[in-house]
């Protein structure tokens, strides 16, 4: 089956490819970045990939499309809540340690 | 898919991948945030291609608007001294660890997607926004209320943490 036929018959795979690339790059970023804020950016990329995969699966198959869109909306809300909490935690860490470098944050006692 | 749709998909997909790479590899965190916003806009375009314009709008409103501003605040409030953090060299082998940990889940999930691919139509279903509201306030009202509670608790916790005084160590 040629690539063009595949695109014609099953575009879901293409969207899933993009979502997987977002997951891989986001995971790479979480491990590669040194600061907590850089890791937060990686997590946001991964959550976006998840939302895209959910919506594509809902819109292009027999599954209920409305449920998929609502699930993606819930993912967006959770991502916003998570970003807020990471902002607060990074703020506290920056106040106490003077930096937000994940490798050097090895002290549990505040 | 029509040829035009394939072209649009390629444009949006390349935008997403380029933005994500900038977001992960840029040395300056502000540039990384710009790359993240580029990737978010690309995903919004993909939502438009999937004929869900409401989600594309929400993506721009919530992600680009709210999360982008939050990340920008995080960058500015925890501003490292120039030449620190992302500029310093990583420990040896970190790149290998990062590549392996990024590729492993993607390859596993990609294998699963390829092997168990469902029958997919090439034209996306279209959903009215009123239907979304009915489903959200009908059978899924508990999830709707819970997400508002989660958001409230997160915001209250963030404010509480932000008010904490500096302790002498």
Category from helices, strands and their pairing of chain A: mainly alpha
Poorly predicted runs of chain B are none
Please state the CA-atom Rg of chain B, rounded to the nearest Å. Answer: 21 Å
Q: What spatial form of chain B do the alpha-carbon principal axes imply?
A: globular
Mean pLDDT of chain B: 86
Could you say which overall geometry of chain A the principal axes of the C-alpha atoms support? elongated
Strand content of chain B is under 5%
What letter string, H or E per element, gives the SSE order of chain A?
Answer: HHHH
Total helical elements of chain A: 4
Cα(first) to Cα(last) distance of chain A is 60 Å
Overview of the molecule:
- The complex is a heterodimer of chains A (110) and B (169).
- Chain A has 110 residues and is mostly helical.
- The N and C termini of chain A lie far apart (60 Å).
- Chain A has helices spanning 3-9, 12-32, 36-60, 65-97.
- The longest helix of chain A has 33 residues, at 65-97.
- Chain B has 169 residues and is mainly alpha-helical.
- Chain B is built from six helices and no strands.
- In chain B, α1 (3-25) packs antiparallel against α2 and α2 (29-49) packs antiparallel against α3 (53-77).
- The longest helix of chain B has 25 residues, at 53-77.
- The chains are: A mainly alpha (110), B mainly alpha (169).
- At the A-B interface, α1, α2, α3 and α4 of A face α1, α2, α3, α4 and α5 of B.
In short:
With 110 residues, chain A is an all-alpha fold. Chain A is built from 4 helices and no strands. The longest helix of chain A has 33 residues.
């Amino acid at each position: 089956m040629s690539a063009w036929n595949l695109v014609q018959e099953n575009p879901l795979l293409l969207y899933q490819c993009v979502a997987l690339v977002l997951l891989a790059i986001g995971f790479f970023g979480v491990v590669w970045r040194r600061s907590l804020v850089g890791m937060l950016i990686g997590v946001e990329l991964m959550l976006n990939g998840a939302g895209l995969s959910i919506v594509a699966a809902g819109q292009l198959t027999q599954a209920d499309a409305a449920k998929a869109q609502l699930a993606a909306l819930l993912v967006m809300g959770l991502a916003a809540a998570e970003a807020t909490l990471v902002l607060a935690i990074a703020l506290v860490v920056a106040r106490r340690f003077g930096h937000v470098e994940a490798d050097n944050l090895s002290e549990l006692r505040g | 898919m029509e040829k035009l749709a394939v072209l649009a998909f390629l444009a949006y997909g390349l935008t997403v991948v380029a933005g994500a790479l900038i977001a992960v590899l840029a040395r300056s965190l502000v540039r990384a945030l710009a790359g993240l916003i580029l990737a978010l806009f690309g995903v919004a375009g993909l939502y438009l291609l999937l004929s869900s314009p409401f989600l594309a709008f929400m993506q721009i409103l919530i992600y680009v608007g709210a999360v982008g501003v939050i990340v920008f605040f995080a960058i500015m409030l925890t501003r490292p001294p120039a030449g620190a953090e992302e500029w310093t060299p990583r420990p040896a082998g970190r790149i290998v660890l990062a590549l392996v940990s990024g590729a492993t889940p993607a390859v596993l999930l990609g294998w699963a997607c390829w092997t168990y691919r469902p029958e997919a139509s090439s034209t996306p279903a279209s959903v009215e926004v009123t239907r979304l509201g009915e489903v959200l306030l009908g059978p899924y009202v508990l999830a709707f209320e819970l997400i508002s509670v989660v958001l409230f608790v997160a915001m209250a916790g963030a404010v509480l943490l932000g008010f904490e005084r500096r302790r002498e160590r």
